[in-house]
Amino acid sequence: MLLFCAWLMIITQEIEFECVPISLMDHVLNFLNDVREDLRSSMAKDVITIKNEGLKIVEDPNCNELLSAVNKEKILQQPKDASVDFQKKITLLKHEQQHNFSSLFRNEEIYGQLVEMECEGELLNQLLQSRRMTMDNIRASRQQFILVASLLDRIPNLAGLARTCEVFKTSGLAVADANVVVDKQFQLISVTAEKWIPIMEVPVKSMKNFLEKKKREGYSILGLEQTANSIPLDKYTFPQKVVLVLGREKEGIPVDIIHILDACVEIPQLGVVRSLNVHVSGAIALWEYTRQQRSH
Ligand code: SAH
Q1: How far apart (Å, rounded) are the C-alpha atoms in residues 252 and 197?
Q2: 231 with 266: CB under 8 angstroms?
């Protein structure tokens, strides 16, 4: 916007207008004032957000990534370079000597307002930079553990796993249909967990591609399942980067998926009942992974 207005004034100067019609200048001035007000209100919101985030970080020094739920989702979904992807405005002060901009503006008032807006732009830039650092902080503090629950159907299991994944700060929870998070029953159980961790939509038919992609990214692709070759959980040492696949509530992990796994782990059982609930199983395995990471 600023570039356009400065250009407009330079053009009117260069094509030898004797003077810019007052009505045009008033239009430009009104436009600039509107832009400035918009910028000011959005910056005020950002200042409050950053302050809240700052306060929370200060209040809880052991947890330097705690952010207000309202903004975490936005921050985590923002593209990595969103903070620098900010239109560079003309720097009036810097160019003043070369073009003597102040003489271009019919009166000091307009020039002064543009300079003020430039300073506000710089402030906004700093706020965006600070926000990006916070976002990087969040990313850096997650455990490199992704839970794949795409084979699960029951909402209480999915919602409970979302809560467990958030409590242990995993890198994400993969589900077959991400719309499940808006279900009322889901939200009753997840207690807002879905706002704090990445929920990835991985339909069953895309699971193989997803697992192969994660394998290329250096993740160990594990299954949590009772199979002939499963390793007892208390005998298994987790690698740092883990993708853990859970099985269907009834049939478990299908054979074609078992075949592409690096390994299967199982929770030793002492009783008669065939198996544990899938959410309980995922929680036990996730705690064992976390316990091992904490013991390093
Ligand atoms: N194998 C189970 C399958 C249903 S349980 C059976 O035959 O009953 C649903 C899912 O919970 C399993 O696919 C697995 O992911 C997990 N699960 C349940 N009990 C488990 C155990 N003891 N060890 C590892 N995973 C278990």
Answers
A1: 25
A2: yes
Average pLDDT of the chain is 80
Percentage of the chain beyond pLDDT 70 is 69
Predicted TM-score of the model (pTM): 0.64
294 lines ligand 1 (CB under 6 A): no
Ligand 1 and 246: CB distance under 6 A: yes
Give the torsion sign (CA, 44, 49, 53, 59): positive
User: What mean pLDDT comes out for the span 168-178?
Assistant: 97
SS3 state of residue 256: helix
From start to end of 39-165, where are the E strands? 143-148
DSSP annotation of 237 reads P
Q: Is 75 in the pocket of ligand 1 (CB under 6 A)?
A: no
User: Using one digit for the tens of pLDDT, what is the confidence trace for 193-234?
Assistant: 999 999 999 999 999 999 999 999 999 999 999 999 999 999
Q: Which of 178, 185, 172 has its CA nearest to residue 242?
A: 172
C-alpha of residue 164 to centroid of ligand 1, in Å: 17
Instruction: Report the CATH superfamily, name and number, of domain 142-295.
Output: SPOUT methyltransferase, trefoil knot domain (3.40.1280.10)
Q: Tabulate helix, strand, coil % of the chain (nearest 5).
A: 60, 10, 30
Cα distance between residue 276 and residue 269, in whole Å: 9
Q: How far apart are CA 34 and CA 140, in angstroms?
A: 39
Residue 84, pLDDT > 80, answer no
Q: Give the whole-angstrom CA distance, residue 49 versus residue 245.
A: 37
